[in-house]
Amino acid sequence: MTPIPSPRSKRRARIEIIPLIDIIFFLLATFVMVSLSMVKNRGITVNLPAAATGARQEQAESSTISIKADGALFFDKQPVDAAQLDVALRQLLAQQRDPRVFINGDAEAGFGKAIAVLDEVRKLGITKVAIETISQKQTQ
User: Fold this and answer.
1) How many CB atoms lie within 10 A of CB 133?
2) At what angle do helices 82-95 and 111-123 cross, to 10 degrees?
3) How many other CB atoms are there within 10 angstroms of residue 76's CB atom?
4) Helix H or strand E encompassing 98
5) pLDDT at residue 131 above 90?
């Protein structure tokens, strides 16, 4: 008697797990690299001056005052004038017990404007103040 072929194939479908694992690891590595490169920047984009002795500081829970080349002031990306800056700093001082302020300015901004902003911050009693720069290694 002749065997009757089965409607089922002798080969069963199977999921190849090795390529699936490769894809998952690739996606995981991509996610990690992208998330590590994300830096929360509170200031506007300016051409920072270079400094050899600059050290990286934690910017969590801080505010940023930016000075553009034309002298325009920004407090956490919001345009302000000198009077509005004073009000914003007073509100910051009322909201946080020990606020941190970063001052970043364009390399072409006037030094007098930067000192005026620094003086305004210190007059209100904010002692944790830093001036942002880029490393000279990054400029070479």
Assistant:
1) 18
2) 40
3) 15
4) none
5) no
pLDDT tens digit sequence for 26-79: 999 999 888 877 656 666 677 666 666 666 666 667 888 888 888 888 988 889
pLDDT of residue 127: 83
Burial label for 93, CB within 10 Å (0-12, 13-18, 19+), is middle
Q: CA–CA separation, 140 vs 126, rounded Å?
A: 34
Per-residue pLDDT averaged across 117-131, rounded?
85
Rounded CA-CA distance 66/115 in Å is 13
| Three-state SS at 75 | strand
Which pair of tokens denotes residue 134?
């880029």
For residue 103 the two structure tokens come to: 């001052």
Among residues 28, 56, 62, the alpha carbon closest in space to that of 42 is found at: 62
Q: Retrieve residue 93's tokens.
A: 């001082």
What percent of the chain lies above the pLDDT cut of 90? 9
Q: For 42-68, what is the HEC assignment?
A: CCCCCCCCEECCCCCCCCCCEEEEEEC
CA 79 centroid distance within chain: 19
Judge whether 67 and 114 are in contact, CB under 8 Å: yes
